[in-house]
Amino acid sequence: MKPSLRKITAVLPVAAIEPSLPFWEAVGLTRTVEVPHGDALGFVILAGRDLEVMLQTHASIAEDMPSLAEASRQGPTFLFIEVDNIDAIERALAGREQAFARRTTFYGATEVGYREPGGHYVTFAQFPPGE
């Protein structure tokens, strides 16, 4: 019998959580769990509709899973998120660092990319109705 996968959630390692919160909250995610680490946040779960993102600081990872401390600093994560309204995303993230401007892809999606404050890249994509 094969395993049955139920859910996938990205864990984004960051130097500090607080700078990333306004980005994720601007696109509609809300904090559902906050775990302090010293005087700052060490771990946060943000959720909305059918998705969830976790942010964890490098320091928290190093304390929790020392064998993964170095790996958590290796590089950015690339996320691809389907949305209903790309215009609303651009309004919500106006003035934030774009990784690439709005474009239409060969597979029919309208996309725009951002670099969130933790250094990770997020592509938001809207597909034509019915696709």
Overall number of strands = 8
> How many domains, as an integer?
1
Question: In oligomeric terms, what are we looking at?
Answer: single chain
Report the total helices: 3
CATH topology: 2,3-Dihydroxybiphenyl 1,2-Dioxygenase, domain 1
Can you name the CATH architecture?
Roll
Q: What is the helix fraction of residues, given as a range?
A: 10-25%
For the termini, the CA-CA separation is: 32 Å
CATH class: Alpha Beta
Strand content: 35-45%
Question: How is the largest sheet built, in terms of strand order?
Answer: 1-4-3-2
Low-confidence segments: none
User: How would you sum up the major sheet?
Assistant: 4 strands, mixed
Global mean pLDDT: 96
Class of secondary structure makeup? alpha/beta
Order of helices and strands: EHEEEHEHEEE
From the spread of the alpha carbons, the general shape counts as globular
Summarize the structure in words.
This protein has helices spanning about 20-25, 60-65, 85-90; strands at about 10-15, 30-35, 40-50, 50-55, 80, 100-105, 110-115, 120-125. By secondary structure, it is an alpha/beta fold. The protein has one domain (about 10-125): 2,3-Dihydroxybiphenyl 1,2-Dioxygenase, domain 1 (Roll), CATH 3.10.180.10. A four-stranded mixed beta sheet has the order 1-4-3-2. A hairpin with a 2-residue loop joins β3 (about 40-50) and β4. The longest helix is centred in the middle third of the chain and has 7 residues, at about 60-65. It is globular, with a radius of gyration of 16 Å. About 20% of the residues are buried.
